[in-house]
Amino acid sequence: MPRFPRTYIKTFLFHIVTQGINKSYIFENSSDIKYYINIMNLLSKDCEVKILAYCVMNNHTHMLVETEKVERLSKYMHRLNTKYAKYYNKKYNRVGYVFRNRYSSQGIYSEEQLYNCIMYIYNNPVKAGICEEAKDYPYSNYKEIKVKLNEEYTFIDAKEDLPIECSDIIKNFLKEKNINLQELKEDRQKLQELITILKRDNGISLRKIAKQLELDREKIRRLYNMK
């Protein structure tokens, strides 16, 4: 369940966090972590997403990614986590969800945020007491950042949520398309686009979407299934 309306964040940089269901381990050993890192890099090329920084812990991951089209981010994360979940369930003879929700994400809007995000990602194992220095952790692409950073700036941790209201996404969509709600209801293509953003990209129920748009739920369902 993503944590902001991706289509309308005016940035190409995103801090991504994925976490194991019930905060459980999703990487039991080094081979699991190496598998995840391998598909993480392979799929990034297919989805045209650039990974600037990453750190894979036992029960969660952090990534700083760059993409020119935010739609690619959703596709990339879906393919990555789905592929790993299938691998994990098969290897450990289990069924069910592996990841808690889909992932959390936060846009990066300034150089200060960028460098602090990188520092935050690389220092995760230090904070957890796994190693004394970030450069010693084997499951990150650590790069030395020779910039004075503001340690007071905080980024989302794996346990944090950043909820987004359905009404805010609709408002942003109308503003972006320069239309009002009534015009939206009369434009099937734009209405379908918005429903997809609300349901697929933000995990909002069709019932809530129908209520917010003041439309019949069955109509919302049909438009969503036509995507």
Q: SSE order in H/E notation? A: EHEEHEHHHHHHH
The first-to-last residue Cα distance is: 19 Å
CATH class (first level) name of the largest domain: Alpha Beta
Tell me the radius of gyration: 19 Å
Poorly predicted sequence stretches spanning 5 or more consecutive residues: 1-9, 149-163
CATH level-two architecture of the largest domain: 2-Layer Sandwich
What keywords describe this structure?
single chain; 227 residues; alpha+beta; Alpha-Beta Plaits; 2 domains; four-stranded antiparallel beta sheet; 9 helices; 4 strands; disordered N terminus
How does the SSE layout of this entry go?
Elements lengths: L12 E7 L10 H17 L3 E7 L3 E7 L3 H22 L12 E4 L3 H12 L1 H4 L38 H12 L3 H5 L2 H14 L4 H8 L3 H9 L2
Antiparallel strand pairs: 1-3, 1-4, 2-3
Helix pairs in contact: 1-2, 8-9
Please sum up the structure shown.
The protein has 227 residues and is an alpha+beta fold.
Folded structure, characterized:
There is one protein chain. The protein folds into two domains: about 5-135, Alpha-Beta Plaits (2-Layer Sandwich); about 165-225. The protein has about 230 residues and is of the alpha+beta class. Strand 2 (about 50-55) and strand 3 (about 60-65) form a beta hairpin. The protein has helices at about 30-45, 70-90, 110-120, 125, 165-175, 180-185, 190-200, 205-215, 215-225, and strands at about 15-20, 50-55, 60-65, 105. Residues about 1-10 and about 150-165 have low confidence and may be disordered. It contains nine helices and four strands, in the order E-H-E-E-H-E-H-H-H-H-H-H-H. The chain has a four-stranded antiparallel beta sheet, sandwiched between helices. About 30% of the residues are buried. The protein is globular, with a radius of gyration of 19 Å.
